[in-house]
Amino acid sequence: MNDKRILYVSSEVVPYLAENEVSLLSYDVPKMVNDLGGQIRIFMPRYGNINERRHQLHEVIRLSGMNLVVNDVDMPLIIKVASIPRERIQVYFIDNDEYFKRKATFSDEEGNLYPDNDERSIFFAKGVIETVKKLNWVPDIIHVHGWMAALLPIYMKHYYKNEALFAETKIVSSIYSQSFEGNLNVELINKIAFDGVPKKAISELELPNYENIIKSSINHSDAVIIGSENLSPSLTKYIETSNKPFLPFTPKDKLTENYINFYKNSVV
Fold this sequence. Notes:
By secondary structure, the chain is α/β, with parallel strands linked by helices.
């Protein structure tokens, strides 16, 4: 993987959030590529429950300051950065006081999904790509983890389709069983359509539940990795019949061999 550039975009990454399938693999896979000589960047949201002092986050003034339009409203983008101790891996955090200041990730104290999770997802997807453009760092692969990041493939294939910077970039999505109950805001499809994405290309989002969001993300990816051993039969079948290159679930002891081979043979 020498000199290959891989952008990792995740809903959650350890050590900044608790350990689970998404957050652990969002750390293990970039570390693996980094150890093999690849060039990586990691992006995640800057949720309010991330301890900025403990993890030594600091704002990157030269990257912050632009506004992103979400559903016809200008929202300021703040970029923060931190380094994972002992690994020399930088993590970029997409921040906005309106969307990410609250002291939790996806839901309130009663377990109810935040009603603006749809807009948070849109803001995160746009924020990542606009920041990468500002860095002028061209990824060979964008590897997406977790449902909060799942709109990024849609935006890459439509909203950013004419960006010369990403002309050769391929998108890989890891699919997990870690989901949410219920639906996101039913206006999600209209808010994405506001950005020029044809509704017929995202028809699954008429009902924005976890499975439909992931299906739409799969449709807009170039390759898929099954990240959970117990992925639902319906999503497993959808991946298997999608005509996309896909990698079945890989146990940790086979991670390096299988992921690197998949990157090389199916994407780059």
